[in-house]
Structure formats: structure tokens, C-alpha cells
Amino acid sequence: xxxxxxxxxxxxxxxxxxxxxxxxxxxxxxxxxxxxxxxxxxxxxxxxxxxxxxxxxxxxxxxxxxxxxxxxxxxxxxxxxxxxxxxxxxxxxxxxxxxxxxxxxxxxxxxxxxxxxxxxxxxxxxxxxxxxxxxxxxxxxxxxxxxxxxxxxxxxxxxxxxxxxxxxxxxxxxxxxxxxxxxxxxxxxxxxxxxxxxxxxxxxxxxxxxxxxxxxxxxxxxxxxxxxxxxxxxxxxxxxxxxxxxxxxxxxxxxxxxxxxxxxxxxxxxxxxxxxxxx
Length: 279
Hints:
The protein is α/β, with parallel strands linked by helices. The protein has eleven helices and seven strands.
């Protein structure tokens, strides 16, 4: 049974991923490539673990490249993932807790966890649990929220102090209502007029969690993802890289250093990869 402290996480992502089937193949492939650093050649024939698969869009990307993929999620999102990947026989999906993984250690060639660890009660411990499932020579890539400057952190925490006390169903409605604000922010910030662009930046600070994704449906989903979960921690590069060293990983790489975003406003993150030494 999952930890009762994660009940909010379960309800949030069970609703989110079963209601919003936001499969965007071209964007999903670009984001996967950016945030894992994995190519088709890396994936072909490998055994891969998706640590927090949600609706399974990245499971599908990896499987279509020829990997055998195991996807796990704490929530009922695994049902959406099963629906999405029903035509791929090399995919296995199960509902499981990152802290109590029913998987053998030293098994996987590749592990990735994108925007998941920061929604757990203890991101470091969740990471170490995943890293133990790497086989010698195996590689893990993660993406978590980046810690913002102090003034912005105060605004974020003030917003979430309110939002995390509201029912998820109410936040979903508010996320829908706020979608036009995200579109407005995007238009203002892309204006060639400096004054208008700066007004967009100011609006973005005041509504920091409202997504600016070009697709309105994704905007709703991303905004809900920001405001609803009980846990949404933000981290520094030094902190996250220390997890990799603690796990005994080598060849630690900052994947964000050479990324090109699919669209403007995808958010700041700490995106690292590392490898377990060969036996």
C-alpha cells in the first residue's frame, strides 16, 4: 500500500492523466531526447525503466525506438498508459511506489524520471531507489524543478500554500479558467515592443504557475500539475549532483547545457544524467 501522505499525489495524477490524454508525438520525442540524452541507437534492444510514467507518452517514445520498457506510476495513470501503449507488446506497466519498487536491483540499461522525483516526499531517497536498479554500465537521467531566486520562491510558496489546500477538482476548474492568461502571457512576452514584453514578464511573475504552452489543453494540464500536488520541491545543481555521487555514479552530465526547447516557456529544471561503473 502507498504511503498515506501521498494520497494527494495519487488523486492529482489519477485525474490528470486519465482526463487529459495529451499525446503530442513530435513534442514528446523532442522533450524525451532533450531530457534523457538518449538516441534511437542507445534505446534499441535495451531494457528501460520509466520512473513515474504518468499517461505513458515517454514509454511510447522509448518503445517505438526499439526498447523494452517497464513503466511504473503511483497513481491510476497506469490505466491511461496501458491504453496508450496497448499496441506495443514490449511494454510492461505496473502501479508501484518509487520507495518500494517491486523490481530487482542491477537490472536496467537505462532509467529516466522526468518531472516526478520533485513530487515525492523525499526526492533524494526516490532517486537512490531508482539508481539501485541500474545494471553495471547502466545510465540514469532525471529532471526536477530548479530552485528560483528568493523573491520568486516567496511568491511560489505563497501561491501553493493556498492551492494545495483546495480540492483537486476545484484546481482543475481554475486551471481551465486560467488558460487564457497563459496565452496572454505568451503573446505579451513575445512582443517586439520592449514595454509590452516587460509587462508580460511582470504578469508571469504574478501568475508563475500558469502555463504558457502554445496548446491550450496542455496549458490546463501543466497548470494543474504546478498547483495541485502536495509535494513540488525545487532544487539546486549542487544538491542534485550530490545524489548522483552518493549513488556511486560516474560520468555525471548536465543535459540542460545543450538543449533546444521545443517551445518557449517550458520551465527551468535541473537535468542530469550519470552512469553506474562497470563491474
